[in-house]
Amino acid sequence: MKKEDFLRYVDHFNNKRYDDIVSYFASDITVEYYDNALDPTSPARTLHGPQAFIENYKKLHENVVEVLEVRDYISDDEYLFVELWTEFHAFNDMEASPARPALRKGETMIMTNFILYNLEGGKMKRIRIAHWRNHSPEEAKYKG
């Protein structure tokens, strides 16, 4: 996948165009999260299929504005690897999960994640999200 194509995908994500986002997915996509990295007793979370992705992110975006920024990017015909700066700006209270603390209305959480995408036929087949580092809310770039 060319970088300009991926940047369009990120633009769709940042603007909550879910149908456009999942047009980049294979019909049997899986999205794997790092949820149990901090608590191995918690089950790891995996989404199966485009509809599960849409439902997951619609629910999340009921409470936060999520903004992605592409940093490093490496791609060939089979794999795409990207460093994403990710900001979460809460406009409602959000409960904690095994992967992140609770966010209260008005709070900001910023992190860097590394994401590995397996590509098949030009579509995203498998996405693995690995958390690398949290950043200070003062570093937020999104001003809404």
Plain-language structure description:
By secondary structure, this protein is α+β, with helices and mostly antiparallel strands. Helices cover 19% and strands 42% of the residues. It has three helices and six strands. A six-stranded mixed beta sheet has the order 2-1-6-5-4-3. A hairpin with a 2-residue loop joins strand 5 (108-120) and strand 6.
The separation of the N and C termini measures: 30 Å
Number of self-contained structural domains: 1
Question: How many β-strands, per DSSP?
Answer: 6
Coarse morphology: globular
Strand content: 35-45%
Strand arrangement within the widest β-sheet reads 2-1-6-5-4-3
What's the CATH C level? Alpha Beta
Q: Characterize the main sheet.
A: 6 strands, mixed
Mean pLDDT: 93
What key attributes describe this structure?
globular; 144 residues; 6-stranded mixed beta sheet; 19% helix; alpha+beta; 3 helices; Nuclear Transport Factor 2, Chain: A
Quick summary of this structure?
The protein has 144 residues and is an alpha+beta fold.
